[in-house]
Amino acid sequence: MNTDPFYIVMQYAAARRRAAIRDRDRLERWQESRILRHLERVREASPFYRELWQGIETAEWRRFPEIDKRAMMDNFDTLNTAGIRREDAMNLALQAERTRDFTPEIGGLTIGMSSGTSGSRGLFLVSRRERLAWTGTILERVLPGSLLHRHNIAFFLRADSNLYGSVRSKRVVFEFYDLLHPLERHVAALNAQRPTVLAAPPSMLRLLAGERRAGRLNIEPGHLVAMAEVLDPLDRRVIEETFGRKIHQVYQCTEGFLGASCRHRTLHLNEDVVHIEKDYVDAERGVFVPIVTDFVRFAQPIIRYRLGDLLTERRTPCPCGSPFTAIERIEGRSDDLFVLPSITGQGFVTLFPDFVSRTIIAASEQVQAYRAVLNSPRSLTVELDVSERGDRVDTERRVRESLAELCDRIDARAPEIAFEPYTFVPGVTKLRRVQRRFAVNERMEPV
């Protein structure tokens, strides 16, 4: 007898009960007790963490050393609690990438590979029990209305996984769309499916919006979900205007299911499954780098894991009343902070990706899409998609002047700008509207 659907429903109900918590102190007490129990299990089962935490009591877990993707991958064999070798997991993941068959497991675990946005590929392991718990939680956070209603979901990702396949049931029709397939194939399949929920990276939602405006895509989804990429204000506006629906967000990455929008479209961190410490980069604006402790995942424990994302916390309470931390926006990646020479000639000035995005968007209403890539502190490439009725030369001039004004405001020397046509196509890589292509040291100096 297959008990998976029953377990998913139980996890869905548990997620609803946790989401109903309205007291922050109660949430933190509950969190702490769960974390302590989880860490004791991890300490016993993971040789890597046991050695890393030597001499530190579990009750003082906030003193545990942080780890990052490199540490996790370098110590994969002893970090995971299932005895899975990195080489074996990587071989299976690469085979799945080549064949596009993502059903094989290793040691009863789902194996996946991150897209490598940060420059290196990451592996993740998820047990069957964790997979079903994830399914129940994401259904509770993402589906409009009750699980008892019927939902027809179209889900776009770079790679399918048993993790996502768990969602399929009698009431939930779930179709995976491979981002590597041609757009024409997607349009035909969507027209046949007629999804009520459309979930995809913003770059794909933009393409589908274009197909809908051209009259080739004939669907009326009642719920739009953006995921896997930063939702840019320009993309949000075009997608919402085209489909006549407000966009909700899912904040999901290799390191866990970190956040989802509430009914007011505010992104909340999922603090019933993860604990987030905030390392502030700009305390005045509330911009921080999250340090994640997942107290649900055990096969591949994520404990005090430093992400590369920049989040801006919301300063005012969300009307939904949830005590889960509200996020104003995901700024981008910390390694995409622009580092520009100071106008004084001494030192460097940092510029957040969000300021670059908003400056380019505001420069001209003819900008349909863009990418800004800082190749060096003195060299910037800007890809622009200009509307058919727009003047490319004038649009480029406006963007150049606006970026120069922005640099003046922060006392930075403006880089030389080279304009190119916009070329990004959704597929293998995630869209990064603002990107830095050189490394910096701790003093924010180029290396």
Could you say how many structural domains there are in total?
2
Estimated radius of gyration: 22 Å
Q: How much helix is in the residues?
A: 25-40%
Extended strand count: 21
CATH top level class name of the largest domain:
Alpha Beta
* CATH-scheme architecture of the largest domain: 3-Layer(aba) Sandwich
In round numbers, the mean pLDDT is 90
Could you name the ranges where pLDDT drops below 50 across 5 or more consecutive residues? none
Can you summarize the main beta sheet? 12 strands, mixed
Q: Which shape, going by the Cα principal axes?
A: globular
Class from secondary-structure proportions: alpha/beta
Looking at the structure, the CATH topology of the largest domain is Rossmann fold
Explain what the structure shows:
It comes from Saccharibacillus sacchari. By secondary structure, the chain is of the alpha/beta class. It folds into two domains: 1-334, ANL, N-terminal domain (Rossmann fold); 337-436, GMP Synthetase, Chain A, domain 3 (2-Layer Sandwich). The protein is 34% helix and 26% strand. The protein has 13 helices and 21 strands. Helix 1 packs across helix 7 (128-142), helix 10 (202-213) packs parallel to helix 11 and helix 12 crosses helix 13 (392-409). The longest helix has 22 residues, at 24-45.
